[in-house]
Amino acid sequence: MTKNKTKKTTYGKKDKLKKRIKHKLKKTVESYSDDPVKLKEMDDLVKELTKLDTIKCEVEEADRFKRYFSKSENVEDMPENAADICAGPLGIDEFEHIVEIADDTQIEETIDDKIGEIKSALKNSRVVIVQGNTGCGKTTKIPRMLMDEYRKIVCTQPRRLAAISVARKVAGDVGCDLGSKVGYTVRFDDKTSSKTRLKFATDGVLIKEIYSKQVRLMHSHRKKKNMKKIAGYDLIVIDEAHERTVNIDFLLGFIKRALQSEKARTRLLIMSATLNTERFVEYFQCPLVTIKHRSYNIEYFYLKYDCDDYLSVCIRTAQAIIERERDGDVLVFLTGQDEIERAHFILSGKLSGADVVILKLFSTMPPEEQDLVFQHSARKIILSTNIAETSITIENIKFVVDSGVFKAKRYYACNAIDSLDLIEISKAQAKQRAGRAGRTQPGKVFRIYSYSRYLQMADNPMPEILRSKLHSTVLSMKSLGITDVENFDFIDAPSLESINQAELFLYYIRAIDKNGVITDFGRELANIPLEPETAISLVAAKRIGCLNAVATISAFLEYQTPFLELRSDHPEYRRYKSARSYFSHPKGDFYSFLVIFYSWEQSKFSFGFLRKNFLNIKTMVQILNVRAQILRLFPHCSDTSLSIERAFCTGFFMKAAKISENGYKTIFGDVECYIHPRDGLLSAHPKYVVFYELFSLKNEYMGHCLEVLLSDLQEPINRFVAK
DNA sequence: GAGCACTGC
Questions:
Q1: Tens digits of residue pLDDT in A62-87
Q2: Which residue is nearest to nucleotide B6 (CA to C1')?
Q3: CB-CB contact of A576 with A567 (8 Å)
Q4: With a threshold of 0.90, does the pTM exceed it?
């Protein structure tokens, strides 16, 4: 294993630095006032404290991203089978037709052919990887066929819906009731029993299971016997491993570590789509079993040039397909709601006479409208975000138009800002998008980028762990006894900056001690299924006596918005606007959430109320569940106080901002920002606010704000300084 | 003043 860590920060060094700065900081805070000079002084100190030079860090981080994406391949390396270039059948000169002959489309292998190989590989190796494309049936067949070799099996899925529907299908195949021999566990829904031998679960559930088994173990005397199996399983199957979510990466690292023990008895099977399995093989040094699966033929068309205005070309291409090809539905991959609405408007005009329906698909739209894509109707053009890449599968797509870009959130540790960036897709994503055609019939894919640009794309998307905030991940790792996070053997190790920032934060809030070991308070936080800041606020709320209100708001904060997103051309737009402003509280989103919840409660949680007020039913039910889950963690609490500001300041004091000449400035980090225009607090111009998140669009915005008093902020800041 | 992709405990 190679470690390319050059810098190693020790707690001892950090401690000394902090002692010195804290002394100065304390003096500053004691005289903390509106004096701009003093405030500036404090900001400087905080910057020194976090040891993050913003500009340098930004450059480094941008560099890191660039390096990741420009895994350059020589443009001249055109494969021989790509030499067949001709004008596309659409007659659009702009495209070149490139025939790619993928060898895995020519031979058909079934799981039955391969299961013997998988079984014997698992006998000889603790870890085995199976690669096969979607549609080969690996998820539904392999775990079931391994039931006669392994007594207790868990198979993880990245999404709740997938875990539930796969479990249902497999229970049917086995011929048992769901929840007996085969079952599933997802948050808020458990269909398993003591008889369950094959369980499908989300990866987050497995992590929680590992955690609670470990806690139980600490109080048990049968330590040695139990250590042999991870969470009591004989076989752990990690499905869709190519998606590389934070949870998957952490599970793989954790299990790899656990399996290094001689006594370990659990086996690990990793299932992944093709293309990036080499990474897993390299990481685990283990055998790979490939299942070749035939799909229908897909023809590829590339743009002859690279263009900036991919949206217009996507629209023109979709139009040309409808006009020149006799039948077949079209799926267009765009980046966001705004683009989709524009494309919808333009295409509706251009194709007004044609017998075609133009549909939109993104996550925050009303579910009834989403369901239209599944209905049998006239010929369809579906304008979708990357929700159609993995989460939603639409049958009968014959044509795919691929813009080559998507939007993704990236966390910049240097200034603690989330930025939603337009990012070029990877080859793996291009393949995934293309595969959405050709599921049920031969298909054609129009790539709105040139072949040479395709060759330059990275092989795989950047793993989530390299672009997200690690505060809560590091906290869970610490709670599992992993103290040395910097040297944890991840497949792709996150930057030292983001690990250090997370550790420093956890240290400030006393979740870990100066040796990096979790404290009792940290354990309490880790047990609350929310971001650490929110979890701290809850613990404070219990003390202050406003737990119910804070729990309600916290549940809302977990979701971006409880509302549906309607555009100004929607027939019900005026009613929608007035519903939104009715619930918009002048003291900001935090209070708006309370108003929404109590109004819903008054309606006895009726769905009619939600529909009437354009609230997202799915989201609101989740919020209700989360709220109940939180309240179960804090039994026998009744509200005696309304100081939710004090409670939230305890958790969010690092996310506070003060009004400035033309907007706000964060107290820690000195970031110029605005209250998001959607927030009810916008017109009140409060002097101090705390915010849930800071994100970057054209400007920096604070999402979900709460007006607070300086005195509310002072106590937690003083406490943190006095440590 | 100006509008955010998708998941999960």
A1: 443 333 333 223 333 333 333 223 33
A2: A387
A3: no
A4: no
